[in-house]
Each structure stands twice: as structure tokens, then as C-alpha cells.
Amino acid sequence: MSVSVHAADFDVSTEIGRLSDGDTSIGAIATFIGKVRGEAHGKPLISMQLEHYPGMTEAELTRIEDEARTRFHLTASRIIHRVGTLLPGDNIVLVIACSQHRHDAIAACDFLMDYLKTQAPFWKKETGSDGVGSWVDARSSDDEALRRWR
Amino acid sequence: MSTPTEPRTLSVRYFAWVREKTGISEERIAVPANVVTVGDLAMWMQTRGPEFAAAFAKPDAIRAALDHRHVKADAVIGQAREIGFFPPVTGG
Q1: What was the pLDDT predicted at A145?
Q2: pLDDT digits (tens, 9 = 90+) for A67-82
Q3: What total of structural domains would you count in chain A?
Q4: Which among A117, A119, B46, B89 is least surrounded, fewest beta carbons within 10 Å?
Q5: Which chain B positions have a beta carbon within 8 Å of A124's beta carbon?
């Protein structure tokens, strides 16, 4: 179980290997990758700035991961979230959940992302072709998604 | 425990548009004696000049964390070492 917050990209195959190689109790691996889209509000997106709260981010992601372990039968899990300047097509976030059977892995992945999106202290600022940056508003649909787990 | 003659000091950190509006990312403050809760501190922030008045104009739009844990406006600051003020989160 581990969390990382950094500017560098990640490689999903490498991360899955680190998490599961040699562990024959694992029968299911679910992954989620979030990426930067090339448009926002119908206009081209040039870049995205991701800011976070150093110290709290790692603490909150660890709490989210601990909560997932109490709800699902997980063998291993991993959360990586990038920060800094990202471009369309870039990876933003990786979640991996490993379990004996698929339902725990898939549900844990979904749960981790719903919690991450509403609890982890990250903020996105989008810059369009006019060069003006604007902070992304929180979505009420993300809060509604979180309520499914309560 | 703090005594009235020794004001509590608190690290304050600002993020995203709260940081941009205040113009600073972090500072140490002496907590006024009449500030008990996170909401009290947000209201006091409004009195610190035009930048802070703009940043804290709508306290309901701002979230807070005490010592790296999310809290509501009625949370007591107590002996916390650090508070963060920021908009609702938008990661993932």
C-alpha cells in the first residue's frame, strides 16, 4: 500500500509489476488512469496546472487508502498523483487495486477515485488558447458519487 | 495551555485562488484572543486589508484543514499548529 505525489510521469506496467510480481495470491488487478483532455468548456485547453497541499496530500491519500482496506479485501494498492504543469494527453492520476477476486479490485478502484476527487487537496487551473488561467470549480456530481459509499 | 499574555501562534497556508487573492502562500500569525473556531479566523481574515477581504469575502466558498485534516467552520483551533485555507478540491 503506498501513495506518491510528484511531477514525473508514471508507467502503469512498471507499477503493476512492483505491486504484484511474485504474489500468487493476487487473482485480480483493476487500474484507473485519469488524463488531461484537450478541451475544456468547448474550448481548446493548452495546459493544466496542478497545485497541492504538501504534507496534507500524502496524509489524506494514506487515510483514503486505509479506508479502502477496511471496506474491501485488498492484497495491495497504489495511488500516484502528478502535480505541476501538464499538457493534453498527459497522465494525471493512477490508482491500482489488487485482490483475490475481481469485485473487490474494481469496487476499491471506484471508491478510491470517488474519495480522491472529493477529499484529496489538489486544485486544477486550466489555461486556454487566450493564455488566461482559470481555476476549475468543484463538481456537485463528484459529491453525489461520494455519497454512494456512505 | 496558552495564557492571555502569550498569544497563540499559528502557521497559515493558502492554496489555489485563496493564495492568489491573499498574495501569499504561508505566514505565521498571532491568533487574536477572541478567535476560537476556524470560522472565527476566516471572519478575522476579512479585516486584514483589501487582499484578505477579497479572499475571504465568501467564507462558505472556502474549505479549511487543521493539522492536515479537513474541518468544518465550527472546529475549535485549540492547540493546532497549522491551518490551511483553500477552495473545494478538484484533483483526480
Answers
A1: 87
A2: 999 999 999 999 999 9
A3: 1
A4: B46
A5: 90-91
A19-62 per-position pLDDT tens digit: 999 999 999 999 999 999 999 989 999 999 999 999 999 999 99
Q: Is A68 on the interface with B (CB under 8 A)?
A: no
Under DSSP, the state recorded for B15 is -
Predicted confidence band of residue B6 (pLDDT cuts 50, 70, 90): low
Asked if A50's CB is within 8 angstroms of B91's CB, the reply is: yes
Contact of B90 with A118, CB cutoff 8 Å: no
Residue B92 to residue A80: CA distance in whole angstroms: 10
User: Which cell goes with A134?
Assistant: 482559470
Query: What is the CATH number for A29?
Result: 3.90.1170.40
Q: Predicted confidence band at B8 (pLDDT cuts at 50, 70, 90)?
A: confident
Which residue of chain B has the CA closest to A52? B15
Tell me if A87 sits within 8 A of A78, measured CB to CB.
no
A34–B contact, CB cutoff 8 A: yes
Q: What is the CATH number of domain B9-79?
A: 3.10.20.30
